[in-house]
Amino acid sequence: MPTNLDLSTLESYSFCDPAAGKKFVEKRSARLSRPAIVTIKVDHLPLPRVFVMQAWAERCTTSKLVNKIFETYEIYHPRRFGIEANALQSFLSDWVREKARLEQKRLPVSAESQPTNVDKFWRIRTILQPIIGHGRLFLHPKLVELKTAMYLIDEWASVVYRAPKRQPMGRRMGEAQRVADYLRRTNMSEGYIQKRLGELGLEGE
After folding, report:
1. d(Cα 120, Cα 100) in Å, to the nearest integer?
2. Integer Cα distance of 18 and 46 in angstroms
3. What's the whole-model pTM score?
4. N or C, fewer C-beta in 10 Å, the chain?
C-alpha cells in the first residue's frame, strides 16, 4: 500500500454478493456459500490503481447481511453500492432500498445482474489480470490474510468492473497539483516533476 497517498481523498465503491463462494464449488453442499461484501478505492489515473479496503464474508442471516451493508456504507460512504441481482438474489436490493427509505438514508444501491452468457473465469481474468499484472492492485494491511481467499475474487472483479475508469477533469487537475506539490517539497527538479506527471498520465492537467 503506497505510504504517500491519502486514501481519504479517493472515492469508494462497494459490491455485495448474497451468495459468494458457491459459484466456485460445483456439486457440493450449498452450505459452502456465504454472503460477501468488497469495498475498493480507485485513484482514476490513466492506469488506475485499485485499493481493496474491505473484503468481508460470513455465513449469516439475511438480516445480518443487510445490517452489514448499512455498516459498510457508514464507514466507507461508497459512491455506488452494487448488489448482485441474478435469480432470486434480486429481492435483497429491494429490501435495502426499503430499509434506507424508512430510515431516511440515501444509499446509492443498484441491482447488478452478472452476464450469464460469459464464462465466469474469463470475465474475472480479463478484468483483474491487467491490474494485478501491472502491480496496480493493493490490499489494505488488515486484509493480508485474505490474499489466498480466492472465493472473493469474483466480487473483486465485479466491483472493479463497475468503478469509473477515468476521473473527471477537475479532479485530475487536483491530483496533478498534489503530486507536483509533494515532489517540490522533496526538492525534486521541475524537469523530474514534469517527467513524473507524464508517467502518471497527468502531464498538462
Report:
1. 32
2. 32
3. 0.71
4. N
